[in-house]
Structure formats: structure tokens, C-alpha cells
Amino acid sequence: MRNPLADKVVEIKPSGIRKFFDIVSEMKDAISLGVGEPDFDTPWHIRDEGIYSLERGRTFYTSNSGLKELRQEISNYIRRKHGALYDPMTEVLITVGGSEAIDIGLRAMINPGEEVLIPQPSYVSYEPCAVLAGAKPVIINLKAENEFRLTAEELEAAITDKTKILILPFPNNPTGAIMEKKDLEAIAEVIRRHDIFVMSDEIYGELTYKEKHVSIIEIPGMKERTILINGFSKAYAMTGWRLGYACGPKEILQQMTKIHQFAIMCAPTTSQYAAVEALRNGDDDVAEMRTAYNQRRRFLMNAFREMKLECFEPYGAFYVFPCIKEFGMTSDEFATRFLEEEKVAVVPGTAFGDCGEGYLRISYAYSLENLKLAIGRLEHFITRLREEKKGN
Amino acid sequence: MREELLTVIEKNSRIDLKELAVILGVQEVDVVNELAALEAEGVICGYHTLIDWEKTSNEKVSALIEVRVTPQRGQGFDKVAERIYRYPEVRSVYLMSGGYDLMVILEGKTLREVSSFVSDKLSTLDTVLSTATHFILKKYKDHGTVLSQIKEDEREMITP
Fold first, then answer.
1. Which sequence spans correspond to the domains of chain B?
2. Chain A residues whose beta carbon lies within 8 Å of the beta carbon of residue B25
3. Which pTM was predicted?
């Protein structure tokens, strides 16, 4: 029989997380700090709206771009948050999670061989999606000394005449890094000068702990060259509802809608009705969850300081990214031993790019009680490692 | 810090002061001072424990009593309320809008104890016009906490 597979797909490395997942799932009594989704339930009034829509028999397709009401609410939301206006009829597209928006955005914009700049460490799907879209992914290795922010110099150095899109993943998974207004202004100048586009993944935009999240679309001249991606998963604890959206210039959105229409048809109807409720009446829920995350973040940072584990202070998402270079192990070795010896699962930094080597992603989407238990074990583990090292 | 502090200890008054200071991002001494101020101002009125007595061998009966009263000249409802809340078996007294005036929540050891309180003590007060007693059959949720629920983490162990 001939090879049934596409080379392009076979050549994509499986996610580094997958391998770890397999070990963890074998282990029954392990506790995890490895989850990339909120621990909160979707607020009841939002779930209730989803249920109500089902009771009323709203079980049909919506329009390809999504419910008009929802697109209007998204447009209102962005105006409220960022002071920018998107036309709900032509500049907003509802997708199956932010993930779909990343995929179809790249497919709609890339010609073969064009380059996509991907700052890493970052979410696992940018690189494979870029490859599948026919792009050449170009990795920008972010540095701990810059608090894992993207600098204008790093951007400038990565740009060639084939560069088409910069992916801007802030607030960042896995580092928790944010880009403040001054950081965005610095890179915006480079972006405009080289005439490239931005895909700004702001799925963690509601979860910042320093000042309000600033979107790159707020910087002059950037909205017209940016695809803004966001969704309901992180802000409203709605991961399983699979609902996100893209906003951007209508010429791009039109082509994205074409792919979406043929590949997906429309995002889940129940989720869309629930999301309307989330945007209309969910601000307090978001604020409450943000406060809880911030308390846990402070707890972890304090614990790291006390055990003298090096970690820059992250101001976004719900991750901390401590450095484990002092132990002379790879991230993978550290995470594997930590799991085997203390039964706590964390994700090696390398799952998010080679430059994550020497770091761990620790999620604080867990109750304080849970975190306390796990951090106790971490302290125990690194104390032992330090003693081992001294003994040698 | 005040509001966030109150929100945290309303859910968990046993949290230790050092930890409280850490998660609020302030110094421990500030937490101590703020708590003392809140107690002095009567904002914090007590540190109670939420107990599901049904899970113990200790039998308790609770009732919710709607009371209609005649307000007294110059003192409104306050004096009547005081007459009622002075009884130690009365857990809560609220002044209500609507069809009755005071809602009294009562806790006793037996049904008889509760009914004799209502007939002997409450109904015989001069200002009480009528009472309607509702026995509580089961508590599902109290003080924002679902009593019977043990929540398991249903998330996958590791996700990107």
C-alpha cells in the first residue's frame, strides 16, 4: 500500500506536553500544577443561559460569522476595553476557540514560503499552524533578563524581506509575561516601518495584575494591520465551550470567514448564546477570578523567594516560570524526577520552545490549599537536590 | 486592602496572618492593624464556623418564623426585635419588607422545644400580632457554601 500520509503533517513534532501527559496519567495519586485552564466553573448565570437556549430549541446553525448579537457584544466589549471600534457585521468572526482563529488567520494570510515570526516560549500551536499554512516559522527566543517581553531589537533582528506576520502572544502562556504600553510602542515602530502584520493572541487579556492590559490595536497605526484574537476560555472559565473570536480589517476577515465557513460552518450555537450573557453580565465574575489568581500568584512568588528559587515576577495569565538552571538538569529531567519522586506534575519549559530550557511552567489555576501542598513538595525536592549537589 | 481582606476571611477566617499578608501583598503588621480596626468598628462581628450538624449525632431543629408585630411609638420595630433576639435560641432576626415584619430563625433541640418557644414566648408578647412557623427540612446551601458537595477536579492532568 502507498504511504497514506502527508509529509508536512508527519514532520510536525508531537507536542512536548503529550509525552508528559502519558507519564502523568499512569500515576494515580499525582497532583498536578500542569493545567492550562481555569479551575473555576463557568459562572452559573452563563451556564444557565446556555441551558435556556437549549430548552428553547436553539439548536440550529448560526450564521457563518456567528450570532449577530454576540458580534455586537464583542464589538461593544472591545470599545469599552480598548477604545477601538470594530464593525460587528464585517470585522468580527466567532470561532471555535481562539485556536481556530490562529489557524485560519494564518491560512488566510500566508503565501508559500512567507515567514511568520513566533516569539517563544509561547503556546504550542503557533508553529505547527504556521507550518500547515505553508509558512516558514521563524522563532524569536525571548529572554529572562527582559522578563520574556519582546524588544524592538529582537524583532528587528528577525525580520527579512519575506516576513509577513508577527505573532504577539501576550499576556503569555507559559511565562506569564506581559507587554506594557511602552513595550508595544517600541515594537510598533518596527512593525510599521517594515510593513508587517500582527496576530495578537490576547486570550489572557483579562488576567493581568499590574495595570489594565493594553492591546496593540491601541497603538496608532496598528489596528489596521492586526488580527486581534481573543475568546471566552480564560476570562470566563469557559474552556470546554470552545468559543473564541477574531477581529480585524474586513479584507482579511472576509477570507478567514471563507475558510471558517467551509471547514467549520459556525461555532457551537449553545456556546454563543452563553457567551452573549458572559459579555453582558460577566464583569464581576472576571474581577472576582482575577483577584483570586492574583492572591495565588503572590503566594507562589513569596514561596519561591523563601526557597530561593529564581523567578522573574510575572504579571499576566496564570503561570509562573521559575528557573531551575542551578540544579544542572534539563527541564525535562527536573520535571520527570519531580513527578516520580514527589508526585507533582509541572510542565517542562521546553514544551513551549527550545528557549524554555532551564525553566518550568507552574500553573496557579488551583486552589490555595492545593498550591500549598504542591509547593511544600517542591521545597522538599529542591532541598534534596541542593544537598545532593553539595555532596558531590 | 480592606474589601479584599474581608472577602478572603469571610470565606476562611482560619487563614494565618502571615499567609493573609502574602496573598494580599502587604505587610503582616498592616493586616494585624486592619483586623483590629475592623473589629473595633464592629465591621467584623465574629469568626464563626459553618457546621453541617446533620452529619453529626447532634440533633437540631431549625425553624423560620414569620412574625407580624405592632411597631411601638418612637421606637419602631427595634424594641420588639430586641425583645425577641434576647432569647439565646434565636439565631437571627431580620426586619423584612412585604407581608410580615420580622423573620426569626430559631434553633432548638426538638420540635417540641421550638413549638413551645413560639406558643409560650413569642406569641404571648403584646406587640406580636401573628406568627407563621416553617420548619427547615434540609439545608442545601448555607453562607454561600453547598453543604453536601465534594468537588473533584475533572480537568485533564496536563494541558497546554
1. 2-40, 53-137
2. 294, 298
3. 0.94
